[in-house]
Structures are given as C-alpha cells and as structure tokens.
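Onboarding guide, step 5: your first structure request.
Type a short instruction followed by the sequence, for example:

Predict the 3D structure of this protein.
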Amino acid sequence: MKSKDAYNWCDLQFPFPYLEKDDLNRAVFRFISFDYLLQMINESSNYLVKTSLWEDSYENFMSKENIKYRGKTVNLKGITDRMYGQCWTSRMTSDALWRIYSPDKKGVRIRTTLNKLNLVVEENRARGAFQLGRVRYYSQGVMEESLRSLPEISKTQLVELINRSYFVKRTSFSHESEYRLLYFADKRETDTVVKSFQIDPYSFIDNIYFDPRADKSYVDRCTKILVDAFSFPESRIYKSQLYSFKPLDIKVV
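The system replies with structure tokens like these:
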C-alpha cells in the first residue's frame, strides 16, 4: 500500500512544510570557489542564479510537464525565466560535496544560518517573492505517480505545485541534504542570469574552511589575502581536517 506521506509534496489538501519549526536556527553550508568567495566579500553581495541553468534535468520539472488548459498545451517558460535560486546544505562534513564542488581541490566551504538567509528575504521583499525551504527527496517513480494521480487543478493550484516542485528532488541527490532560497523576479528584471542581494559578509559568513586536500602553501596564501586585503578575521578561517589522521596509542602485551 502506498504511504500517504509519499505523495504529500503535491497533496493540495495539506500545506507543504517548506521549513520546520526550529529550522531557522540551523547552520547551513555552501561549497564555492575561492574567487567566488572574494567576489561576495568585495561586493558585499549574495548571488542567486536562474534555476533554468541548473544541470539536473528534473529541476523545474513541473514547467516541463504537458500542462493542458482548455485543450491547449501551456508554455510555462515565462515563469521559469523569472525564477532564481541558491542551494545550501545542512551537511557540515561531506567527502562527496568536496569532490563535486571543489574538483581542483581549491574550493572553500562557508557557513551561515537559515536565519541569516531569512534576513536577506525580509530586507528585500519589496523586490519580489521569496521562498526559503528544505528540499524533500523522493524516488523518480513516486514523483511521477504522484503527478499521474492528480485530479484536475485550478491555475492557482498549478502555481502552488510549481513552487513546491522546486523543493522536490530525486533520492539520487539526497546526499546533498539541501536547503534552497528562491526568488521570483518581476518580469521586467529577468534580463540577467544572476541576481545580487546586499549582505554584510562579515556577519553573514560565520566561518570559512578550505578544501581538506588543498596544499598548505595555497591555504596560507589565500588566508593572507582574506586577512590583509579584506580584513576577514583569521580566527574564523580554517582548513578542513576531513582527511587528517591522528594515530592512537594501542598497548600490546
């Protein structure tokens, strides 16, 4: 028997749990290049990119379905072109994420909190609609079966399902343990692939960790740039110890 919870992402009788009660206190992490970090600090900005550029073919999947209205297929490109997003993870330590997002071993991981991301939302509500939430993971079969079981829906319900679908991914990506910040821009401001939002990088970024595989000379050089050129506190800069090994004393008699 199918679990009712298995299809709750598109069950319009119930609200979608974008965030749980205590989620705003949660720390989240983002793996980025060092150059991208310097740009964030130098420009005091956080950047969201058009979700239509995300590589997974199932991103924006609701807008790719055959949506019929009065017998005609509806083109939803106008909606997807207005959606910008940014992905974070709740995983503090992850071999997979370092290897995916720091292939040259020179990336960094920054830490913030969902509450600080929510402050970005609160300070920019006049610009457009935002949604902050946790991604839920389902098998591809469950995702497709849930859509097949949908009754006829209204245009308002379709918009809600499109919004929810940005927080649904296949279980193949569950290692990402992802949270997302989405921004639905005014249709007059969709001419760029990136949207920037002002932040104070020194309070927004709690700490910076370098790739555990990075050379010491590289970490030292980049740390000096962050401290001397950008006045970032050295006490909040580290190198990940994921691959460090400290032997224990084991006595044999």
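Each response can be followed by summary notes, for example: The radius of gyration is 21 Å.
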